[in-house]
Amino acid sequence: MNIINLIKLAYRALIRNKTRAFLTALGIIIGISSVIAMVSLGQSSQRSINDQISSMGTNLITVMRSNQRSGGVNVGSANVQTLTEKDVDAITARAKYVSAASPFVQASGQLVNGANNAPGSIQGGNTQYLGIRKYEIAEGANFTDQDIRSAAKVCLVGKTVITNLFPNGEDPVGKIIRFNKIPIKIIGVLKSKGQNQMGMDQDDVVIMPYSTIQKRILAITYIHQIVVSATSETTANLATDEIESILRNTHKLKAGQEDDFQVRTQQEMLEMMNSVTGFLTALLAAIASISLIVGGIGIMNIMYVTVTERTKEIGLRMSIGARNRDIMWQFLCESIILSLIGGIFGILLGLLISYIASALLNWPFSISVPAVALSFVVCAATGIFFGWYPAKKAASLDPINALRYE
Description:
Number of helices: 13
Strand order of the largest sheet: 4-5-10-7-9-8
Largest sheet: 6 strands, mixed, barrel
Order of helices and strands: HHEEEHEEHEHEHEEEHEHEHHHHH
Radius of gyration: 33 Å
Structural class: alpha+beta
Distance between the termini: 28 Å
């Protein structure tokens, strides 16, 4: 029997029981759509994270204070004072793979403008800080080296801060706001950046000279971090090695002595986030594939019922010359077609779900071509695997007994 006749016979058999065929295929539809949706959403979230990290600059390097240990217990880095402005100067002067470096200090408190107030975070850096962190000025101007030397009480503000403190839409440039009890003059407004990969609002920020935060707000002489921009993405690792060597030298650390600082690159964060999202995607896809197995069992069950119902038909066909393999291929073809139909609708439903979810979550829509291709293979394999035994049972029926079956 040729393949065209097999498909025609299978189609006619399935069309006679449309509702049963649909309900049987529903298990495959749910299984495939779940797997496709999970894989596509996993890739969409991964792309969203990559885009967010890239927007911060993939050549960004952060030097942090090393965690302090007491009695073998990690007590954090809050009181560690190992980083200073001299470290920034040394990196700027001696690192050939570094294009810019800035001290970084921060403080949290209450921002006030008249009757309007909101909790806020103030970040401090030098004149290169905006370029390193990919901030741009929409209105006004950046602070100057003179502002840093004099610890001037000037700042740049993000869009969220403006919304909270200037709800009537007035121009904030030139206005005086207060951070706790300290008056600060707004000299510029930053372009909006939206949320980062951790869901934090990057526009809810105030940036000012680091020296102002050191001397007038925190009363400290050290810095919290050093932010560095490598000359390019490809030289980030070379810049990291340079920074480690320079800081070990400026901190007078001997061979074998542990670093009192940590150097982290955006690439490391990118790899870590990709690893986490990849693992979660695989886990969710594995859980979703359980429904695919359940759908396959449903196909096996319904094919058993079909063989029982059509026993006389099988006996009749065998009595007029149909071979055992013809009978087996007929039922196996029905199983495969049922599975493939479920797979096609499952793929379309899965892509629709992932498209809607991506739009709602503001993620880039991503189609996993390997996952779609694999779904077709899995559907065919499911039809063969779960349809083979019922088809074999049908082929092994004795034609005389089959004709007598009521």
